[in-house]
Write a structure and sequence with these properties.
The protein has a single domain (2-226), classed as Rossmann fold (3-Layer(aba) Sandwich), CATH 3.40.50.1360. The protein has seven helices and ten strands. It starts with a strand and ends in a 7-residue tail after the last strand. Helices cover 30% and strands 18% of the residues. The structure holds 2-amino-2-deoxy-6-O-phosphono-alpha-D-glucopyranose.
Length: 233
């Protein structure tokens, strides 16, 4: 793993921006994207930049089950608000959390990923070490699947909702196997609440109990962390 330490999230976004710019300039055309608060400053930089993504494909990691794209808490809404409404992409994909045929929704997403091999996959990090919505215990070779969210994740994401009972309890997520098939993985983690997961991801055992530890097995991973997230290394 190539570990880049920065003083704060803003510096981290600047480093991540440089990696996106270089990857795009070198001809990459498929970007795996993430939600959560971590990538927001990066998306802002991309929006304000002259970078041209009009020939690029974006494939998002995950979506809550049951929320329509118009719901402000949905990841469809999030991506439109922070990136896609402001920066043109050739095509954008986000798992369909509204399709009652879950089998069709997951296999359709696997087809999309197979047809568009991901050049650069952006990841955040859950406090329990999840990536995308791949919670502890998810198989390392998993494809797109339906997830029962853990209480830890529901608690962490409740801050985006008016009431905790409004937080969906299930999601549809790209699998760990698909994340691992990306050519380059860029994970960002900022803040003290990520310090335990960061330490285990980088120097703990490789175990499905800590999904991000799988990244130790990938040949091309860049991790950007701030001082607070690096505190337990
Ligand atoms: C959610 C998302 C993850 C994200 C995580 C961390 O669970 N599904 O992709 O990495 O939140 O969010 P934050 O960046 O807000 O800490």
């Amino acid at each position: 793993m190539n570990i880049i330490k920065v003083n704060n999230a803003s510096q981290g976004a600047a480093r991540a921006y440089d990696i996106f710019a270089e990857t795009l300039t070198k001809g990459a055309r498929v970007f795996g994207l993430a939600t959560g608060s971590t990538p927001v400053p990066l998306y802002q930089r991309l929006v304000e930049s002259p970078l041209d993504f009009s020939q690029a494909t974006a494939i998002n990691l995950d979506e809550y089950l049951g929320l329509s794209g118009n719901d402000p808490q949905s990841y469809h809404f999030f991506m439109a608000q922070h990136l896609f409404n402001h920066k043109a992409f050739k095509q954008t994909f986000i798992p369909d959390g509204k399709n009652p045929d879950r089998q069709a929704a997951t296999s359709q997403y696997d087809r999309i990923i197979a047809e568009n091999p991901i050049d650069l996959q952006l990841l955040g990090l859950g406090r329990n070490g999840h990536i995308g919505f791949n919670e502890p215990g998810t198989a390392f070779d998993s494809k797109t699947h339906i997830v029962d969210l853990t209480q830890s994740t529901i608690d962490a994401n409740a801050r985006f909702f008016d009431h905790e009972v409004d937080v969906p309890t299930q999601a549809i997520s790209m699998g760990i196997g698909s994340v691992m098939s990306a050519k380059h993985i860029l994970l960002m983690a900022f803040g003290a609440e990520k310090a335990d997961a960061v330490a285990q991801m980088i120097s703990g055992p490789i175990t499905e109990k800590l999904p991000a530890s799988v990244l130790q097995q990938h040949p091309n991973v860049t991790v950007i962390i701030d001082d607070a997230a690096a505190a337990k290394l």
